[in-house]
Amino acid sequence: MKTKIAQLRKTNKLSQEELANHVGVTRQTITSLEVGKYTASLVLAHKIAKFFGLTIEEVFLFEEEEEK
Q1: What's the sign of the alpha-carbon dihedral 29, 11, 7, 47?
Q2: Separation between Cα atoms, residue 19 and residue 5, nearest integer Å
Q3: How many Cβ atoms sit within 10 Å of the Cβ of residue 39?
Q4: pLDDT at 64
Q5: pLDDT computed for residue 62 by the predictor
Q6: CA 13, 15, 21, 27 torsion: positive or negative?
Q7: What digits encode the pLDDT tens for the residues 4-45?
């Protein structure tokens, strides 16, 4: 899943560690989210979006899967 986390974090001059501390996860979790290796839980997605004052849809880019 693609996200705007890295962009938002850089715009707000936050390190991965700082964002992680604000939302209660590890820096490694933020790294994994940014590179698309981890999909956030709904709770974590809500915390991140709320931290930036955005909706979940503004932070996480949902792409519909093609039907087979």
Answers
A1: positive
A2: 9
A3: 12
A4: 63
A5: 82
A6: positive
A7: 999 999 999 999 999 999 999 999 999 999 999 999 999 999
Length of the chain measured in residues: 68
Among residues 36, 60, 62, the alpha carbon closest in space to that of 47 is found at 60
Q: What is the DSSP string of 7-48?
A: HHHHHTT--HHHHHHHHTS-HHHHHHHHHTS----HHHHHHH
Question: What tokens appear for 12 in the block?
Answer: 């707000």
Tokens of 33: 């989210």
Q: Provide the pLDDT confidence category of residue 63 given band limits of 50, 70 and 90.
A: confident
Tokens matching residue 36: 């698309």
